[in-house]
Structure formats: C-alpha cells, structure tokens
Design brief:
With about 200 residues, this protein is an alpha+beta fold. The chain has 9 helices and 5 strands; from the N terminus they run H-H-H-H-H-H-H-E-E-E-H-E-E-H. A hairpin with a 4-residue loop joins strand 4 and strand 5. Helix 3 crosses helix 9 and helix 5 crosses helix 9.
Length: about 200
C-alpha cells in the first residue's frame, strides 16, 4: 500500500474527527462519505472498533502498515504501557516534531520539509521523516531555508508554549526536545488500548 494522497476530508468524515486538522466540510457533514453515509447506522463490532482506531492512528501520523506494526513491536518490548509507548514513539518522529514546533501547517507538509533537506538535527541535515528524535536533540530549520515562505506562514501566530516537552528557540527557528511527552501531553484523540488489543489477538 502506498502512502495515502487522496482527499483528506473523505478520511476525516470516515472517522468523524478532524484528524488532519480543522476541516470546514467535516463541520457541515459530520457523517461518513458516500451515497448512504447519512443513513448508515450499522453497529460496529469490537474488531471493527479496534481496526478503526489503528487506521486513525496511521492516517494521523502518516505511517504505513509495515512501519506501524514495526513500531508496535518495538513499543511492546519497551518498559511502560505499550499503547502509550507507541504514541510516544510516533510523537518523537522527526516529521511530527517539525509539525509540533509549528514549522509546517500539517504533518504531510512537515514530511516534505524533511525530505527536501530543510531540517537539521543537532546541526546536521536529516532527510528521514521517521528519524527518532531523542531528549536533548535540537531540531531546527537549515540556515539556507529560513526564508522559505511556507515556514514563515506556518510560524505566524503559532503558540510555542503549546507543548511543554519542546523548548522553542527563535534565534535558530527550531527547538529542543526536553523529554519524551507524557500521554497527557499528546492531544490526539486516539484510544491506544484498542490498538494494543487488536495486535494482541
């Protein structure tokens, strides 16, 4: 399966949540897409709920199935609550940290910045979106890329005190990962325990 590049509103309506950010269409049509979306009232099975939660997490963070399963297996081997560890690993991906720093308006846009070598980690260019950012690492915009309009637009009015686990530094157009985020620091409405139950079958 290739990375999803289709209509984001269609996916958001499928889950009934603005998983890609504010969505004007979803606000008006908060029901599944398709001819019978408004009238569909089927009861979802336990497996269906678990699968839906996994799909929601995958779409939210832009991760493919094999990557997601590998992350889950790594999370299950670490100390702590597996579901929370999984979300923490997703949050510490480089593309997500770039998004959380406000350097891009969305995760796909953050992924593009990373792929196009506009982002550095500890002063070195890193172009791997899945790169695992560790506490103490400094993620910033490459010197040559600081004048990019897309970055300036994203930063305009962005609240840098939104995430307590990241420290913003205006002088470098970037920030330091202070610590791994706690579950309470992660705003995504994902029921991670359902994902654990799905993979535990």
């Amino acid at each position: 399966m290739a990375r999803y590049t289709g209509p984001k509103t269609k996916i958001a309506r499928k889950f009934g949540e603005p998983i890609f950010g504010p969505d004007k269409v979803l606000a008006k049509k908060n029901y599944p897409p398709g001819q019978h979306g408004l009238n569909r009232r089927r009861k979802t099975s336990e497996y269906g709920l678990q699968l839906k939660e996994k799909q929601k997490a995958k779409y939210t963070y832009g991760v493919l199935e094999r990557q997601f399963r590998n992350l889950f297996e790594k999370a299950s081997r670490k100390k702590g609550i597996t579901g929370e560890v999984l979300l923490q690993m997703l949050e510490c991906r480089l593309d997500n940290v770039v998004y959380r720093l406000g350097l891009a308006p969305s995760r796909p846009a953050a992924r593009q910045l990373v792929l196009h070598k506009h982002i550095t980690v500890n002063g070195k260019v890193v172009n791997i979106p899945s790169y695992n950012v560790m506490p103490g690492d400094v993620v910033a915009v490459r010197e040559k890329s600081k004048s990019l309009e897309v970055i300036a637009d994203a930063l305009a009015g962005f609240n840098h005190s939104k995430y307590a686990w990241i420290e913003w530094d205006e002088s470098i157009k970037g920030g330091k990962l202070l610590h791994i985020p706690e579950r309470a620091d992660i705003p995504e409405p994902i029921k991670e325990q359902l994902i654990v139950e799905l993979y535990s079958k």
